[in-house]
Design brief:
The protein has 453 residues and is α/β, with parallel strands linked by helices. The chain contains 18 helices and 18 strands. The protein folds into four domains: 120 residues, Rossmann fold, CATH 3.40.50.2300; 165 residues, P-loop containing nucleotide triphosphate hydrolases (Rossmann fold), CATH 3.40.50.300; 71 residues, Helicase, Ruva Protein, domain 3 (Orthogonal Bundle), CATH 1.10.8.60; 74 residues, Arc Repressor Mutant, subunit A (Orthogonal Bundle). Keywords: ATP-binding, DNA-binding, Nucleotide-binding, Phosphoprotein, Transcription, Transcription regulation.
């Protein structure tokens, strides 16, 4: 079902024009010619947004905004006007009018504004229980993950978090710790892939003075340092086999033996591990112990890639805008509809981490109060084409991989150039079509063909 829009204008021809425009966009349209008619509709119908002329014969469009505010309707109101005085602007702010659009206006500009306001208004409703503030999203996948976090946090079960790089595995681990009875004890993360294998053992288990050259003092390992708390082992698949057997003993016996010591020490920790690899494949290759896998996989939480949870995109964008606006002392209020559409049509190979980097950069360079497409930097060309080069100079540089489809490859290149042109023109379809050397009708056809909203 589409959004319900109330259009208020005293000129019938203009009302009819707007009705056709919004019906074609999938809206349910309600029409009123004056303030009293608008209020009658607002009292009877569930309206999502109001688009009203500022001047309605002898009436004031601000009266509609005043009615919404006084009755706590929380319906965004946009006013159409040929001009606005300072007094009107001040009164509009008091009445929470979200925006003005100046007559005459471009219909694409109006539609973009309406969609932008509706999407930002919807995103403000995201709330979650204490401890899950950093797990952003209301998609079915994320709601289920939040439930899993709450359930597993009540126990001391070992957890294995799986998912692509950048999906937020450490955030989930921290949330589990925060909601558990161990939350007043340390949470100690360590990346098994970031530490050389010869140093990883001493980091985890510690060492005694004189155990090796340079061991000038006793040093407790991470398992001891986190006693009573949670240890998070990221990229567990990269742990050497020699250490995997020692980790298995920690899980089975709750004891550690520092390097150079004959004495075992008891530890009380909760272990959470994560990987972006398929551990079943690693077991087949002989690089991961099957018995350790079963010990780790008592409770599994799988995080979907961002491309599979696009319903959460705007919530994540607004979260990062708020975060980095505060950090860099910028007054960024949200994202423009064209910029949002640009991101919606991107695949995010780096997942949420990549989105965060994109928004941080955009906040830094944006000069207006909303992020525009010109501030969005994406890896458009060649991002997903791992085998095929676009920028070749002779036949010898051409590579044709297995299962190659020339039709699909050409379509992919065409789609990327359309997205790039839309980005360069702030999603102005007329300018984008001109830039691409095609008609506006052809551009709209191709956007529908490739699912570009």
């Amino acid at each position: 079902m589409g959004y319900n829009i109330l259009i208020v204008d005293d000129e019938k021809s203009f009302r009819d024009f707007l009705e056709i425009l919004f019906v074609d966009e999938g809206f349910n349209v309600f029409l009123a010619k004056d303030v009293s008619g608008a209020i009658e509709i607002l009292e009877k119908e569930k309206i999502d947004i109001v688009l009203s002329d500022l001047v309605l014969k002898d009436e004031d469009g601000l009266d509609i905004a005043r009615f919404c505010k006084e009755n706590n309707l929380k319906i965004p109101v946009i006013l159409m006007t040929a001009y606005a005085s300072n007094e009107t602007a001040i009164e509009s702010v008091k009445l929470d009018v979200v925006d003005y659009i100046t007559k005459p206006f471009d219909t694409d500009e109006l539609l973009d504004l309406i969609h932008e306001v509706l999407l930002n208004n919807k995103a403000e409703a995201d709330t979650c229980c204490e401890g899950l503030e950093e797990i952003i999203g209301q998609s079915p996948e994320i709601i289920n993950i939040k439930k899993e976090i709450i359930n597993v946090s009540k126990s001391d079960a070992t957890v294995l978090i799986t998912g692509e790089s950048g999906t937020g595995k450490e955030l989930v681990a921290r949330a589990i710790h925060k909601l558990s009875d161990r939350n007043n004890k340390p949470f100690v993360p360590i990346n098994c892939a970031a530490i050389p294998s010869e140093l990883l053992e001493s980091e985890l288990f510690g060492y005694k003075k004189g155990a090796f050259t340079g061991a000038n003092y006793d040093k407790p390992g991470i398992f001891e340092a986190a006693n009573g708390g949670t240890v998070f082992l990221d990229e567990i698949a990269d742990m050497p086999l020699s250490l995997q057997s020692k980790l298995l003993r920690v899980l089975q016996e709750s004891v550690v033996r520092p390097i150079g010591s004959n004495i075992e020490k008891r530890v009380d920790i909760r272990l959470i591990a994560a990987t972006n690899k398929n551990l079943s494949d690693e077991i087949e290759k002989g690089s991961f112990r099957e018995d350790l896998f079963y010990r780790l996989n008592v409770f599994n939480i799988h995080l979907p890639p961002l491309r599979d949870r696009k319903d959460d995109l705007l919530l994540l964008i607004n979260h990062f805008i708020d975060k980095y606006s505060k950090k860099y002392m910028k007054n960024i209020k949200g994202i423009s509809f064209p910029a949002l559409r640009l991101l919606e049509n991107y695949s995010f190979p780096g997942n949420v981490r990549e989105l965060e980097n994109i928004i941080e950069r955009a906040v830094i360079i944006e000069k207006t109060s909303k992020i525009l497409p010109s501030s969005i930097s994406l890896k458009i060309v060649g991002n997903e084409d791992k085998h095929v080069k676009h920028d070749f100079t002779n036949e010898e540089e051409l590579e044709i991989p297995e299962n190659f489809s020339l039709e699909n490859h050409i379509a992919d290149i065409e789609k990327r150039y359309i997205v790039k042109a839309l980005s360069m023109t702030n999603y102005n379809k007329t300018k984008a079509a001109k830039l691409l050397g095609i008609t506006l009708r052809t551009l709209r056809y191709k956007m529908d063909k490739y699912g570009l909203k």
